Amino acid sequence: MDHRKKALLLGDYTHPDWHPLQGVDAEISRIFHDTMTVQCSENRNMLLQENITGFDVCISYMDDWKGKVSPQQTAGLLSYVSNGGGLVIIHNGISLQNRYELKQMIGAKFLHHPAYAQLEFNVTAESHPVTEGITGFTMEEEAYQFEFGSFAETKVLLEYQSEEGPKPAVWAHRYGVGRIVYLMPGHHVPSFAHETYRKLLLQAGKWAARYV
Asked: What residues does the ThuA-like domain cover (predicted)?
């Protein structure tokens, strides 16, 4: 019997705007292999309450910049997280922000990004389970920038250095009795080959799914 927890990975195979799930799905499945099974889908109806409740954590890699999830799908995800589900959002998965209710839950919205570049990342909260054992690292990435809402009690765990100074790269908070983590890196398949990032993503998933 498989005692691993269950993760739902949502992304786009057929019509991604910029970030296809192909390849990324295999990397994420390998990262979580020992702790969670990963079911991959582009069907937004997996967010409906009757479908999502069977999972311990939902991972958003949705490339949904032009569309919106439906009110019913939004309600399903909000209910899922507030009642104890985990939500891990990777890079472009923040496109859930097209629904204002989900933007409030995530705690910030994407604004823009400069050109893909080598970035330096520094840990700002060493004691958090997501960043435990993580030290500063560098990797090439698409440097998303955000605007935070004043309504979310979120904790920035990792920053990257930009020309304007440090910018948030990873944050986490609770929503109801659920847990949310956002990770800015994850632009394409090579991002997931970085050993430190793989560890960071694994720990984010384990915290959101209540392993720790």
From this structure: 34-208
What is the SS3 assignment for 130?
coil
Distance CA(50)–CA(173), nearest Å, equals 25
Range from 18-27, 28-37, 41-50, 112-121 carrying the lowest mean pLDDT: 112-121
**pLDDT tens column, 176-191:** 999 999 999 999 999 9
Burial readout 124-156 (b: 16 or more C-beta within 10 A, e: otherwise): bbeebbbbeebeebebebbbbbbeeeeebebeb
Nearest alpha-carbon partner for 156 in 135, 170, 173, 138: 170
Quick one: tokens of 46?
């997996």
CB 159 within 8 A of CB 167: yes
